[in-house]
Every structure is written in C-alpha cells, then in structure tokens.
Amino acid sequence: MPRMPKRVKFRKEFRRTRDRKATKGNFVAYGEFGLQALEGCWLTARQIEAGRIACQHYLKRQGKIFIRVFPDKPVSKKPLEQRMGKGKAEVEYWAARVKPGTMLYELAGVPEDTAKRALVRVAMKMPVRTRFVGRRLAV
Amino acid sequence: MKIQHTLNVERREKTGSRYAKRYRDAGKLPAVLYGHGKAPVSLLLNAKRATKFFHLGEKLFNIALESEGTEQAVFLKDVQFDYLGDTIVHVDLTRVDMDEEIESNVHLVLFGEAAGAKGGGIVQKQMDALPVKCAVKDLPDEIRVDISKVDEDNPLHAGDIELPAGVELTIDDNETIVTITFAVETGIEGEAEEIGAEGTEPEVISEKKDKDEEKGEKDDD
Fold first, then answer.
1. Do A64 and B124 lie within an 8 Å CB cutoff?
2. For a disulfide at B173, which of A32, A75, A130, B159, Cβ 3.0-4.6 Å?
3. Is the CB of A9 inside 8 Å of chain B's CB atoms?
4. Cα dist from B8 to B43, B47, B57, B74, B138, whole Å
5. 3-state secondary structure (DSSP) of residue B76
6. Helices and strands counted in chain B (H then E)
7. Considering the domain boundaries, does residue A55 fall inside one?
C-alpha cells in the first residue's frame, strides 16, 4: 500500500524546480549501510513501496530497514484526451522529491554482503541510478 | 592519542568558494586554523595525504607555519563533505596543547555476541561515535564495548560503558547506546493497516479552516 501524508495544508501544489544537489539527508544516519540516489527524480509512493517489499522479501525478517524518503508531494495529471484548461487536474499520485545524493534506504543489523545484495534488488526498482554506501567519517 | 604525522601546510591567500574550487582542482584541500584567542588563518593542505590520515582515524597533527613560530599541535575539529559524501571539501583545525581539555567524538566498536541476538534479535547501535570530554593526550582512538550481556530488556546505557582513565562522557548516563530489536511480525506486503486503505485522501487543513470560518459567520448572523 503506497504511503501518503495523513494531513496536508493544501490539496495540490506547484511542480517546482528539481535541479539541486542534496544538502541534507545525504548520509547514512540510522543504519550501517544505505542506498544513495545519484540522480534527481520524483520517487513515487509505489516505487518506494516496491523497494521496501523487494528488500524485505530478500532479508526475510533479518535486519531493520529505514526508509529515508517520504512521498509528501501531490502530483496531478489530466485524463487522456482532455482539452487543456478548466483548472488543475486531480491528484494522480504522491511522490518524494529526490535530489542527487539523497539517501533512499538504510539497513541495520545485517552483514555487508547481505546488505549489498538486498539493496541491489531495491536499486532495480528505482527510476534513477543509485549506489551502495556505508557510514562516512565521523569527527 | 599521539601525534604521529606532520601536515604540510601553506597559507591560503585567496579565499571564497571560487578560489577554493580552483585549489581543490590543483590537489589542495582548503582548511582553517583557529583557537587559543589568536586570529584564524586560512590554510591549504595536501588533499591526498591529509585525506588518507583522516580516513585512518587520525585527529591530532603537527603543522609548521611561519606565523605560528615553531611547530603547532592541531586537532581536527570538523570535516565538510561534498553532496555525495565522498570527497572532503574543507576541514577545521583548532590549536591545542596536549594537556588541554577538549570535547570530541570517539568511534564506538562493539564486540561479543549479544545475548538478545541469539534468538533472532537485531543489534542496533543508536550512536556510531560517543561524545567525550578529556585531555588531548588521553583521547582514545576508539572505545570498545562488550555487548555479550545486552538483550531486549537490558539495553546498553551510556553509564554501563567502561571508559579509559581521564575520559568522561558528555551525554546523560541514561542515554541508550545499544538496543536489541526484533523484526515486526507483518507479512511481506506489511504496513497496510498503518497507512490506511487504498483510495483514502489526506485531510486538507485549509479547507477545514474555511468551513469553520463560514460556520462562524453564519452563527454571527
């Protein structure tokens, strides 16, 4: 079941620009390993859920998955063969704004090779290039 | 922690992001040196050499700079990364004496098999590094903690950690460091109940407000 917010301030929102690099949420914070996006996209709630299921299916109750993105952006779409105008269309799906560098998923409590294999499966469900990362240098 | 290496530094004449990028392209690492009430100095390090030391966990160095006179002991205070977290783009160094008390984070290493993990529990580290306060010479490279007695009902708290002499934690003794969790017994599809049935829409706060205001106006009339 795709995720979405429980309460929102406004039903629909503008598209806004996408071309920025991630300045927050771009490092492994909760788990030991993570899957990092290398490109920007709107990651739909269905894609996030597909990734979670793929990971959980492989891990079979081992380890803990942290989903670092939440689909809080409503995306509207006009129906097919609809003439232009007549106002903004209804919300089609919810998406998370992903910038290059955003951490998508994190894993804890599993060895590195298992985490790598699980996150490779998740990466296949993602619409962007991703990579496997560990914790970075802490000072 | 002892000083093992000397960093080759040179003064950075031109500051700002544009020049910093040019220095990085030339194999230099921009840095700043401050502390002990003296004026901050912009520096350049050899990026390849310095990064190698930082990744080995070294935090204490000697630097030789004309303005500092003799060799000065410096401590790695902060590191800035690029957006992917691969490349170090800037470091903060602070002047220190070996007897001076400082606050820093020390890497936490767990060993032993947790009692709670034998039954399928997951060992979860709540902190990757422990914030400590100690003299520079007493700063440990890492803190090793035995977790063989940790189980679900008995998590590891900050107060349970045995620290080297002269080192004290700056967090509360009741702070949880290591816990044992079990995977939630849901199906692979999972979480459906948590999120709600398909087709449900989020509650719109602004619409609710408008309706309330309209109601209020009618009541006034």
1. yes
2. B159
3. yes
4. 10, 10, 18, 12, 25
5. strand
6. 4, 15
7. yes
The candidate with the shortest Cα–Cα distance to B110, out of B165, B140, B149, is B149
DSSP labels, B160-177 = G----TT-EESS-TT-EE
Are the beta carbons of B54 and B76 closer than 8 angstroms? Answer: yes
Question: What gap in Å lies between CA B69 and CA B85, rounded to an integer?
Answer: 35
Q: Does A111 touch chain B (CB under 8 A)?
A: no
Range of the domain at A71: 40-76+91-134
Question: b/e per residue, B53-78, with b = 16+ CB within 10 A?
Answer: bbeeebbbbebebeeeeeebbbbbbe
Cβ–Cβ gap A57/B188 under 8 Å: yes
> Looking at this protein, which amino acid is placed at residue B31?
A
Q: Answer whether residue B192 shows pLDDT above 60.
A: no
Q: Is A16 on the interface with B (CB under 8 A)?
A: no
Domains of chain B: 6-96 (2.40.240.10), 103-181 (2.170.120.20)
pTM given for the model = 0.84
Q: What is the mean pLDDT of chain A?
A: 92
Chain centre to alpha carbon of residue A11: 21
CA terminus-to-terminus distance, chain A:
40
Phi and psi, residue B66, nearest 5°: -55, -45
How far apart (Å, rounded) are the C-alpha atoms in residues A22 and A43? 15
* Contacting A residues, span 34-53, partner chain B, CB-CB under 8 Å: 36, 38, 52-53
**Number of other residues whose CB lies within 10 A of the CB of residue B189:** 12
pLDDT per position as a tens digit, B24-69: 999 999 999 999 999 999 999 999 999 999 988 888 998 887 666 6
Domain containing residue A50: CATH number: 3.90.1170.10
